Structures are given as structure tokens and as C-alpha cells.
């Protein structure tokens, strides 16, 4: 029951998978930001299933963005921006058949218990990945806002089904290379294998997970509000709102736990009059505050829980064991589409921090 | 500049390493909880350096807990509970010498930039691990509160310096075994090696990191407030406020990214009339909501940045390269002491969720 | 830039007077509340100008409520409820003409300065009373929720243009009588005079203000979260978000400042085994907490700033003095329509307190 | 159970009347503000009873301020500032005698019900006016902060026991004149009568209320965050946290409800190149946003509920009617001392708005 995130740049999510629409209210965006529906549409299109994504859901939505409020004459007004896409291609029949059977790995059981069975179960309702279209709309505004102070956010797939991409190079080459394949991976050779793996999993009625890296370049030093609103903490909270994300790490992350201090510590140096570190095990964050080095986070995405294979489950009505094979229209691997969502959430959180730390003016001119 | 955490069970942290005291205000604890200073002291003692921790800081503090408000006649009153320990054994001399030299891996640079050089640098000031004593005091209240509805929180070290403990068994054996050694590890054989590794690192003027597992048993189904206040998200945010934590995962976590759906999905079953899962890759959380299975989280702790070895750095005054060997009194590995902090933060977050979901009455009798 | 209100029952407002729509997101409403669009429409109709209100705005909107999310099969689902009405009868021409002239008593100047001239000025944009239609939609949900625990909220006009209604009697007669006239006043004789006064003011190209009383019956003892979230404080904050409200008082209010303690103190007594007070100068609130006696608040509404009379003003472009006579379509007195808004905000705040204090279950059955 | 107020300048109150101490944590104050304990002591002294206040409580506390954290070398550090005074002159005997008897006009009944009888009843515990000493400490920091951008806050008594002061002139004369008497009234002649009235009430075993005006000069245009965080709303919420305040109005306030639009509207004009209004019925706030004109608020303070006269009441144990004459040490009229509190809360709220709107830098130099 908390669908708002952020302090000064605050988003409020609404809508269900098979309801009327998916929407988001963005509150706190400064006035004077030039923005058009096309800026938002471009980002929303990145997570669409119809872009040739291998084995993505067969649901075909136009996902045409509408701007209900907060933009006037091509600029933000300082008022809350309500953005929405309508749900059109709704087919709840596959869900109707199994609505009393708990799908393993899904929120069916916990949602049923928490909301007393009143939750909208059609297409997973509020627990569908489709609600992240709203996150992406908010992220589009955030990205535009961050660009005014030179911050660029990028996410890409670094691992799918156990296939690792070669370590990313500079951000320009990441962007260029990830655009060349359907899994948003900056290593073309790995991308080919990933696509094969997804197709193979699909043939088996199975699914795959993976790892997404989110980055931000151009951050000023000083973003983050310790002790509790660290950059890491607020990003992790935002990332873990993306369905299927089960882990988050920053910089060297879990690998840092196996390093010695002399290996993990990033030496300081001076370059062009600015303090930098010579390595970036800290992922651009020290003490919960941005250091000016590139921010680097990684998100662990579990395999899509909806699979065609027969699984053991329980019937909620009878409380008897049963089995289930999940139909409906699902992605075999959501990682490629979740890349756009990870990017969006990174932007939303950083926009909030930039405003809180006074790095963005309340009125842009 | 945000030192409060939580909605209904909200903690507010204050104090610096070499200031007058370390404190915490706990707001929102229901009235009628029986609690004494000894309940809080017991938890605080768990993170003390003087408990024979191998190579823990030489700073010797009594850490005697004082209850300033909110408790009357042995019960909480419903008013904010202010808890504090005084700083007594202060020696800022080692810091004075290097106060203009950025210690690699520390928040010196980011804090200096963010607070314009006005931050209290003595003993790392607000960025010292010592402020987590406040977290532990709050955790003591939260643990007591959770115990009224049968929730038990436990943390233990599962890896130090690359040495992995054998997978934990039931929670009773974890508690019993971890109490038998100074690194809070439930695998006695691994504990011996961990202690040796810490001692070796200390001899080298180096430091170690590790991984902590935090667990909660007895959770009711339904805690968590999606879409943004998921259990994972709120716990991760709380964990990442602990200095040196750089990654968090739940259930199978990052390993889940390499599983297939058919492997990762936990089958549902019925036991004693209750729905359970036969495995726990989901770590007790589905859709951001507790499933009733044990909650399992892991925290990656980087090696202590303060090391005796000579490191490359920069002098803030001259902006010239320099070197630094960090003196002061530091732990070679903070994992053993951070176990108590991870446990505390788990309790604080779960207490908040239990109150938000109406699982704990506003007045206890 | 803060368009959200409430902790557990939280509303988020969006939309402008001449934009696409006026909307509200209600987050935190428990699952299982039976509600239909007609429940919300009924409340929205109460603030419509077309109900024969004397000299209300000529703008004719159908104000047909749409439920975008959060309701399924006639019950709330626990998900955010997005409600909206579309703006249809838009005519910005009167505003176009004077868009650079500051209308006295309006937010033109402050909004221009705060939002750098990017604010939507059409029909006062975000500062129009029209956005309170969103408040009323949220209030409809809150009223329905409160009714499940026997709380009834009522507002009525007690003074217009200096004409005072006779002191209100019991709440049933208030409701019955106020429904009999177009100014929502429970004193029929006063209502006649109020209507005459409004007509006279209109003839003069002038406007009137007044006072609204908001009441709640059936409150349990114990709502309110001191020290900062008192019932008075949270209600006042909500009331002062209604355009034109410039003062709020509770119980005897400002008159209490002139009483002696022996006159103002309400004596305690016991009735049917319950503690009551024999008088109600405290307006149902002691120490910021509900006492179980009827809650009584009064809101001072200033006269509509839009008047046809010529007024001195300033041209924003030239910064030269000028004069302005405000055209457009405005109410001569907004008090009758603001009654529904005051009632709605009372309900929204009390629903939040009832949830926070655990008086309403998270799932209704 | 909510003892925090503010978004970016957030205060957290703790402590009880007869507990160890009264304290406040100020979070979010920018780094680099020069402040000493004497700046805070000066404000705290203004609300002390020992300053010759007529018939103020006989309790004699030194109220010596201690700064526990957040200040280093004479400047704020950006870390939370914890401030406290110790309770020394505690005598709970008068309360012990009547602890089961509900004092009319007090929070005894509502607190007992809300906190299940676990609340600290000594000296009214958490509901004592003494906790406002914490508000004043926070206000001292806020005032110092506001002074860096030229905002000056002033409060004074404008009515006591029905005796009205002549309308205030310029703020300098208000300050000068109110300092000349013990009731903080800017009208010397009225002050004499007020003091007489207080003495007479005391002789009768009775008490008086009154009205406080709070003002702020030097406000920039644009503070306030509509639609819900208006300046009026946030100030009213803060004022109503002061015990005994039962009403708040801004500018012409309740009187505006009796004016016509042509009378109430403040004409715009230009002076020295700045837009001003020729009158100030709007009290410096239009659309919930500061207009640059002086902010003017008035607080209705009810008479002290503790009176020596015999009153009808109820015994909580037996639920039988009884009578009570309240002993203990109380002010006959709290208005003179509450002036300092109203001033403090005004400063706290405005500091928050100034930070939110970017008018104060995060680091002061």
C-alpha cells in the first residue's frame, strides 16, 4: 500500500495489467523543463515487447503515452505530471482458468493473503511487470531533467542464462553496441549466445534470468543523504520494486567481500584539477554519497516465474495439492525489457537526489 | 541529511564518533511493551569490540546505555524513546595528523565536498561505524516488539576473507554455534580459519571483508507494502546504511540469475493446513510480501578501508598526490561486529512492516 | 510541489482547470471495501455548479467520474485507486485577455514568481477551485471507509456575507435542513437571507465569503498522533489546501481565547458506562486526540477574489500599474460548493488517522 | 506517535515533563551555519517561567541547553543536531494524588485511552507545555538559518483575557515595546491591564487565554509547496502542536469571511521595481505561496486548563463522578511564554520551506 517513491521528485504509480490503464504521477519536477510526449514515448518504446525481442510476450499493446497534466506549451509547469497508457489487448482467459491455483514464484499467494482475495488477479494485476511501463514514463522525465546538468544514465544486460558479457568499456560504446541486438547487451558475441539460450529455454517451456548493469556518468560530487538515504540504499529500494529483482550490488559489490582492503580501496589522484580515483571498486559512491566517478550498480533478475512446464502447486479453494502449467502471454526472459526499467529507476532516484542537494534549480530557464 | 528511517516504527539517528554521544530516537513503538535498559544493553554488548573480537579496535568504550525518555515503570509509554551511549575513550590525535589526506575507501572526500569541509572529521565523525551502536539500540526495542508476535531475527557471518561457512542449518543451531566463537559464525571449523585469516591480514597491515546472512523466522504472511515499499527494498535500504555494505541479496539472490525458472521456482505445498513452499529460493518474499517462509538476506561487507599499508592519495589543501598509512584504532574485519547491526536493522524494518500491516496492536497488554 | 497528503490513506492530486482532466490517486485504502462509481459520483455532484447554486459559475461540466484503477468486481483491491473527471467546457478566452495582469486576491503573482511564468494560467490552472473536485472524489472513498466503523462526516454553511445561521442542532436535522436550500445551510431562514445577499453582491460585481462548519460523529477515542500529527493540525493543513480558506478553529476556537478556564473546561461525566464531557468547547479533541465527543471545526472562507468591479493592479510585462475587471465564469460565493470539499477533506484526514491507529482492518470483510 | 515535523529541515521531539530531559533533534540544517549554545540558550530563556512572568509556574528549572551533536568548531556540520535540557526541579506529588481523576480540559482521558494507561502521567508527561522547550531550541537554529537570507520572525501577544492590544505597528516597534513588559505585548497600556487580569484570575483560582500574532518579514516570493503543503497549512499544523492552541488564521482570517471581495482583495502596485500589495489582508500568502509581503498569523490560545477551582470530573478507576481542584505548578496564563514557542514554530516551518524552494544553500560560507 505504498505506491509513492521519492522526496522532492516523487512518483506515484497506479494501474493494473488488465485494468483500464497504467499510469504514473510525477510530482516535484521543476518548472520550465522542455518536454514533449515524444520524449516519453521514446523511452516507453524501449521496453515494448514488439521490438523483435526474442520470445517476448505475445501481448501487443501500442503503449501510446498520454500526458494528462503538468505540461503546458511544451514545458513542465511545476504541477504534477500525470502520464498514462491505456490497456487495449486484454485477454484474461488464461488467468481465469488457473485463478485459484498458486503459480510458483509468483505473488499469487502473498497477494491473496495480504488483500484477502480482493486483489485483481487478471494478468497478475498489480504484480505484473506491465506496471513498470509507468516507471519508464517517470524515468523519461527524470532523464530529461538530469540531462540539464549533464548526467547520463545507461543500463544494459551483462548476463543472461549464465552467459556473461565481456566487461563493458566506455559508455558510448555500450550504448552503440547494445542498440545492435535484441537483448540490450553491449557484447555482440555474447548477445548471440544469449538469444540462443532464450530460444532454447522457450522450447523447453522454461525461462531464464540474468544481470543488468545500471550506470550514471557525469554525477556531481555530493549527491546522497546519509545516514539512511544513501545513494546505494535508495537505488536498491527502487530497483527491488522491479518485479523479479532479487539482489543489488554497487561497484565491486559481492566480489568486494573477498578482496583485501589493499585491493578494494581505490587510490585517490588528481586529474585536471579534480580529485578522482584510479580504480572504481566503490562504484562511484563513498559513504553513501556520489564521488564524481561513474555510478555502477548491478541487479540480479530471477528467471520469469511463468513457465509452461508442469509444476507442483496448491489449489487455494480446496487447499489440496495440484499441478499447474502457466499459459498466458509471458516473456521467456524479461532481462532485455527490464533494462529500460532499471535505467528509468536509476534516473528517478538520481533526479530526486539532485533536487534534494540543490544541484537542479526549481525553475529551469 | 536524512537520519530518519521507517514510517510507523521510525528511528532517528544522531551523534558522531568523537562527539558527546551516540543516540537514537525510536518513535512509534506501541505503549505497553515491557522493556528495561538491560534488554538494550544486551544487544549493544554484542557489537562491542571488547568481547575478545580478534583484532577489533583498541578503543575501549563501556557503551553503557541510557534511556532518556519513552519508558515509564518498565513499560514503553507510546512516546518517543531516546537512547544514548556516551563517548568516553576519545583520541583524535591519529586523525588530526592526516585530516587533510583523503583515506582511500573512506567518505573523507565525499563528505568534505558535500558539507563544505564543515563535517566533523574526528574518528570519521558521522561516517564512523560507531554510529551503528544507535541502530543496535533501536534494534533491541524492535526485537522485543517482534517477539510479542513470535518473530525471531538472527544474523551470522557466512563468509570472511573468502572463507565460506557450511550452509546454515536450523536457526537454533545457528544461534548456538555462532555464540561459540568470536566471529559469529555458525560453522566452527570455518570460524577457526576466519580468525586465522583476520590475524594474518592484521599482520600484513591489511583488512578483510565478508558476507553476513540475516534471517527472520515466524513471519506472518502479508508483511510488505508494494509496489515501492517491498520487504526487499526497505531491508536493502536499511542494510546499505551500515558502513561498508556494498551489496544485498534475498533468497537465491545473484545465483537465481543463473537458474532456470523450473529450478528457481519454489513449489507450493500444504503442511498442517498452511500453504508452504518446499524450497526457499524466494527467501521468504514473493511480490515484495512475506510468504511465511523464513526470510533470508545476505549482505556483502567490503574490507575495512582503514589499513596500515601505505596507499596513494591526495592532500586536500594542496591538491597534490601524497601517500597515507591509516593509524587510529580500527577493526581488521568489521564483519563479526556488523552481525549485530544487520540483525538490528532487520528487526527495525520488520517492526515497521508489522505495525503498518496491523499485525501488532497499538497498545500491548 | 507537494501534491500528496496523508500517511496510510494518502491522496495525490493532479490536473488543472483547463487541462485534460482533474484527478486523484487514493493509496492505502484497505481491500474489500464495496464501492461503485455511483458512490463517488454522488459526492462530486454535491459540489457541481449546475445544482441551482445561486450565481455559481456558468461553466457547465458533466463531471462524470471515471475509475481508472484499484476497484475490481465492486470492491477495492488494496491497489491505488485513480479517479478522474474530464474537462470539457473549456473557454480560456477571458483569461487570455488578462493573462499578464495580476488579479488581486489570486495566486497569479506568487505562481508566476514561483514557477517562473511556466505555470498554466488558463482558468487559474493548478490554483483553480476546480481541482477540489479531486478532493471530493477521494473524500467519497474515505467516507465510505469511515462508515464501516460508524463515523459520519457532515459539513454545512454557518455564515455567508456576515449572515449567521442559528447554532446547529443535532446532526440529523442539520443534514435534513441543509438539503432544503442551495447554500447548504441548516437554518432555512438564514439561508433565504444568504441567497439574497449573494444575489445582491453579484449585481454589484462583488463577491462574498463565509464560514463552514465541519463535524464528525461516531469517532472512537484515541485518533490523532501527537505531538505533531494532532487531529487539529492535520485537519487544518487539509482545510487550508482548499482555495480561499484563511482560518481554521476547533470547538470554541477563537472564542475560547476570551473565556476563563472555569468557563472553557468541559466537565467530565459518565453516560452509559462511557466517559463523556457535558459540554464540547474542546470540539471533540483533547491533546490532539479524539475524545469521542463530536468533532467540530470551522473554516473561514474569504470572498471569491474574482470580481467584476474594477480593481487596481499591475501588468507583469511592463511592471506598470493598470486596472482589471475579472471576467471568466466564477462563483459569487464559493461557500455553498466548498461545503462538499470541507466534508471530503475531513473524511480523508480521519480515514488516515483511523488506519494509523489500527481502528480499521487492512482487509474488510 | 509522530514526533517529527518537516521535510528538509526536520525536527524530532522527545522527552517528558518529569522524565530525564526535554530534547529535540534537528535534521537537515545546512553545514556551515555559525551557531553557539548561547544562541539557543537566549531563545530558551524567553519561555522560562523565572523571568518575572506574572503568575507563571513556580517550577524553577535552569533550562541549561546542551548540544549533543551536529556542531563542531562553532559551525553546524550537516549532521543531525541533538539539543536537550535536563529536568531538575521535579515534584510529581501533586499529580500522584489525582492521577486517576481526569482533569477537565487536559489530555488525561484521551492519552489514557490511546496509550492504554501506560502513558507517563507525571506533570502531564508528554502532553505538558514543557516539551515546547524543545520546539524553542529547534526554533533558535531555524531563526539563525533564516537570518542568513534576511528573514526575521517575531511573535507577540495581541490579546489576553479579552483585553486587546492596539494594532501592531512596524516590527521594530513591536520588538522594542514587547520587551518592556512581562506579557510580551507591544501595547504598553494593554499590557498593564493584561497583567492585572492575570493576577485577578489567579486570585479566583481561574485562568486566562489569549491570542498571539506571529509575523515574518523579509520573506522572498515563492515559498510554499501547494497544493497540500501551503504555507498556511504547514504553519497551522505546527502551531496546533502547541498545547492549548485551538485556532489559527492568516491575514484578515475569520474577519475576511465577512468582507466583500472588493474589500478583501489587496490591490497590486509597484514599489522600487518590486510588485507589492497596498494592503495585507492576505497576510503575505496567496495560493499558499509567500507574496513577499509580511507574513501574519494569529493563534487562539485557550485558557490554561489547570485551575484551582473545584470542577466536576470522573474517577477512571471507579468510573464514578467526582470533583477535582488542580494543584501542581501551573501558569495562570500561558500566552506570554507561548509567544516564544509560536515564534519558534514559525521559524522552523519557514526554514523548511526556504530549503525546499532552494533559497538556502546546502553549505553556507
From TrEMBL, chains A, B, C, D:
It holds the Pfam family Chorismate_synt. It catalyses: 5-O-(1-carboxyvinyl)-3-phosphoshikimate = chorismate + phosphate. GO terms for cellular component: cytosol. Its cofactor is FMNH2. FMN binds at residues 126-128, 287, 302-306, 329. InterPro entries: Chorismate_synth, Chorismate_synth_AroC_sf, Chorismate_synthase_CS. Reduced FMN (FMNH(2)). Its EC number is 4.2.3.5. It is an enzyme of class 4 (lyase). PROSITE patterns: CHORISMATE_SYNTHASE_1, CHORISMATE_SYNTHASE_2. Pathway: Metabolic intermediate biosynthesis; chorismate biosynthesis; chorismate from D-erythrose 4-phosphate and phosphoenolpyruvate: step 7/7. It comes from the Bacteria. GO terms for molecular function: chorismate synthase activity; FMN binding. One of its GO terms (biological process) is aromatic amino acid family biosynthetic process. Homotetramer. This reaction introduces a second double bond into the aromatic ring system. HAMAP family: Chorismate_synth. PANTHER family: CHORISMATE SYNTHASE. Belongs to the chorismate synthase family. This is Chorismate synthase. It comes from Dehalogenimonas alkenigignens.
